Task: structure prediction
Amino acid sequence: MGSYSDFEIDLLRVAELIGAASVAFALLLSLVVLMLRARLLLRERRCRTFLSFWQPILMNAVEVASSDVPQLWRRDLSNFLLLWNHLHESLLDESKDHLNQIAYALSIDQTALRMLRRGNLRERLMAMNTLGHLREQKAWDDLSQITEGDDAFVSLAAARALVMIDAGKAVSQLIPLLTSRRDWTAARVASVLQIAGADVLSDPIARAAIALSLEQTTTVADHEAEAINQAARLVQYLELAHNASALPAAHRIAVSSHDPEVLAACLRLLSRAEDLDIIRDCLRHEDWRVRVQAAVALGRVGEAEDEARLIPLLSDKQWWVRYRAAQGLSHLPSMCETRLTAIQAEQSNPFARDMLAQVMAEIQLQ
Result:
């Protein structure tokens, strides 16, 4: 066997070093995993210990108000707020007041305010929820400023907290944001408005929707589309209001608006005899979304004579229009299976016949 050259010896040494480094790295990685596992187990044990101690105290406070509470350690603050907020969202008003009494005894209001102003994202969101449940007026200005921030999720969380603190004041303040903030999704906004309740929400939303719909008729052409979309958004929220406010507002807006999105939103609400003329006119609208909602509305409030108005829609080029027209027919007064079968036989359009067959089959399955 020949001797190794210096170059080969150097290569062997490099390989040995790489192997040793790989082993050391693997050992270090295993140690890190073990440490993380131990940390997780320790956190879970602390959480169980916390719950076994604090959950009975809070549950007892739900029944009997008390300000005599033990010290809350800083390391338990996050777990306490999670438990406290969870209970708050599961209880009735009187019990919530008892929970608030405990929170004030522990100075949670001051702690939450500090978290709101200087905490990380998770802490700020938790603080918003806590301050909302506490109905803490001292947080109003901070929360109002956050509702105008760039982050849609955080700003909506702040809006929710404002509604919990003072629903009437918050709704008046938030209505302009409902039309200006396009990053606020309708579903999330609706969940916030539902917290306010129809008693608080109805009149302000109705007034705002009417005012904006009237304003759009005088808006210059360059901005017309934006104004119309804003009006449609407000009309959608009328579904959360009392009928005494929502229905007259929807009627008035439908009379003056020519925008398909606004009309479709209004038609989802119209359900009175005085709305029939508007609904019947919309059956001939050029936009299929309007025709769909008009067919649905006519099924709610239509009369026997509206049969002749719905039958042509059975041959509409849009599937949804044909489907809602067939359903609308089935809901008309005095309509029966025999008459639907006769209407089906009279149709020359195969799409119309098929749609009536589908709706009649659905009726039989109900």
In short: The radius of gyration is 32 Å.
